[in-house]
């Protein structure tokens, strides 16, 4: 594997908190790397909605 491609893969893995990394291979060679990152927010509800009667 080429060092440049290895570096790109490792950096993508190191810098992602939530998401996925897809490596596309054609004829035994890496041709594409897709990184999908998700940003998650904590759900905040008002106290009136959380109370049940």
Could you give a short description of this structure?
It holds the Pfam family DUF2292. By secondary structure, the protein is an alpha+beta fold.
Assembly state (oligomeric): single chain
Question: What is the overall shape?
Answer: elongated
Structural class: alpha+beta
The tally of structural domains comes to 1
Number of separate strands? 2
- Rg value: 19 Å
Percent of sequence in beta strands: 25-35%
From N to C, what is the helix and strand string?
Answer: HEEH
Number of helices: 2
Span of the ends, CA to CA: 62 Å
Detail the poorly predicted runs.
Answer: none
Main β-sheet, spatial strand arrangement: 1-2
Largest sheet report: 2 strands, antiparallel
Instruction: Compute the average pLDDT.
Output: 86
Please, could you describe this protein's structure?
The chain is 30% helix and 32% strand. It has one domain (3-50). It has helices spanning 3-14, 47-50, and strands at residues 19-26, 29-37. A two-stranded antiparallel ribbon has the order 1-2. By secondary structure, it is α+β, with helices and mostly antiparallel strands. The model has no long low-confidence stretch (mean pLDDT 86). Pfam families: DUF2292. This is DUF2292 domain-containing protein.
Topology of this protein?
Layout (H helix, E strand, L loop, with lengths): L2 H12 L4 E8 L2 E9 L9 H4 L3
